[in-house]
Amino acid sequence: MSESNPKLIEKYPALLRVLHWSAATVFTFLFITGPIMVDLGKDDPLRRDLFNLHKSVGVIAIILLALRLTVRLRSALPPLPSNLQGWEIKLAYWGHCVLYALMVVTPLVGWADSNLHGRPVKLFGLPLVKLFPTVEGIGNAPGYVHTVLAYTLLGLVAIHVAAVIKHRYFDRADVLQRII
């Protein structure tokens, strides 16, 4: 007599894997274009084009993340490898929470920076709703906050990638296979 043992989920659902790698691609683009566009001279026409493209891709990041969170909350997820330590599991949980929070807050602060300075956010030329009022004399604070959040997110992504490498090559707990 054989016992029925339901097969454990070994990978994230396909849609979550696609959304994960789409987010990685979108945020990589944002991390690259952000510093380039702000370093261009105010009169450089590429600056305006890059700002508009950066904003459009930031809106796409928000949309993808909303979809990703919706799918993730409704999906069965694969278990973590059994050889992970308790502290690693807690760190992974909180690391993911902070990653998600920064992926939401960073683009929204960028949107706020535009709106607070009286600039619209457009999705490839299509004007979007103004979420924040124009504030005369707001200064550089919103842009500075957006930059700090972006670099914090980038640092956390680097830690995330380092953890995957550690688990794959040093612990022999191939967490990467769950998301590819």
Automatic annotation (TrEMBL):
Describe its membrane topology: Multi-pass membrane protein
Where does the record place it?
Cell membrane
| Organism superkingdom | Bacteria
UniProt keyword annotations, A-Z: Cell membrane, Electron transport, Heme, Iron, Membrane, Metal-binding, Transmembrane, Transmembrane helix, Transport
**Could you tell me which residue ranges the Cytochrome b561 bacterial/Ni-hydrogenase domain spans?**
12-180
BP GO annotations: respiratory electron transport chain
Primary localization: membrane
- Tell me the first and last residues of the signal peptide: none
Q: Which Pfam families match?
A: Ni_hydr_CYTB
Q: Which residues cross the membrane?
A: 12-33, 53-71, 91-112, 144-165
Q: Keyword Transcription regulation on this protein? A: no
Q: Is Metal-binding tagged as a keyword?
A: yes
Q: Which GO terms describe its cellular component?
A: plasma membrane
Example GO molecular function term? electron transfer activity
InterPro entries xref list: Cyt_b561_bac/Ni-Hgenase (IPR011577), Cytochrome_b561_oxidase (IPR052168), Di-haem_cyt_TM (IPR016174)
Q: What cofactor requirement does the entry state?
A: heme b
Give the record's family classification. Answer: Belongs to the cytochrome b561 family.
Q: What is this protein called?
A: Cytochrome B
Species for this entry = Candidatus Methylumidiphilus alinenensis
Q: What is the lineage of its organism?
A: Bacteria, Pseudomonadati, Pseudomonadota, Gammaproteobacteria, Methylococcales
